[in-house]
């Protein structure tokens, strides 16, 4: 399978990605726990069917020390006992924020209140921004049919 276009090699694509990467870097340098960031990226990527991002973020998380058990259970986080209450709140917000088109009301007050119980205002800004950024990456890669499987941790550092 080949990508539809060389988005990463395009001058305009590179310019767009620089801006998105800048936003992503601001989030990664925030006070939002790194493990939570990776779980959010993985879950949104699973929902959106983005193989490229799922490959990247599961490998990055494993490289950073995340356990195989937790990585295998991200898609079934509601039934899994291996996630903290804060992580579960972030995953719920991720699902609702990723599936806004599926729900007339968007993110529920309950999901927001649960996240707000676990994260301070700056962390919530980071969480909301991260959900938006990973959804942007997912859409670029899904539309472009970016192939998955060859990512190496740190490849884009």
Please give a handful of descriptors for the protein shown.
157 residues; mainly alpha; AhpD-like; 64% helix; AhpD_core; Carboxymuconolactone decarboxylase family protein; CMD-like
Describe the protein's architecture and organization.
The chain is an all-alpha fold. It has a single domain, classed as AhpD-like. It contains seven helices and no strands. The protein is globular and about 45 Å long. The model has no long low-confidence stretch (mean pLDDT 95).
Explain briefly what this protein structure is.
By secondary structure, this protein is mainly α. It has helices at residues 11-28, 34-48, 51-63, 68-73, 85-98, 109-118, 121-144. It has a single domain (33-144), classed as AhpD-like, CATH 1.20.1290.10.
Which second-level CATH architecture applies?
A: Up-down Bundle
> Total helix count?
7
Give a short account of the largest sheet.
none
Helix share of residues? Answer: 55-70%
- What's the shape? globular
What Rg is obtained from the alpha carbons, in whole angstroms? 15 Å
**Amino-to-carboxy terminus distance:** 25 Å
The counted number of beta strands is 0
Query: What would CATH call the class?
Result: Mainly Alpha
InterPro entries: AhpD-like (IPR029032), AhpD_core (IPR004675), CMD-like (IPR003779)
Protein name: Carboxymuconolactone decarboxylase family protein
Pfam families: CMD
Organism: Streptomyces prasinus
List the helices and strands and how they pair.
Blueprint: H1 11-28, H2 34-48, H3 51-63, H4 68-73, H5 85-98, H6 109-118, H7 121-144
Helix pairs in contact: 1-7, 2-3, 2-5, 2-7, 5-6, 5-7
Protein name: Carboxymuconolactone decarboxylase family protein
Domain Carboxymuconolactone decarboxylase-like: 24-95
Pfam family, one: CMD
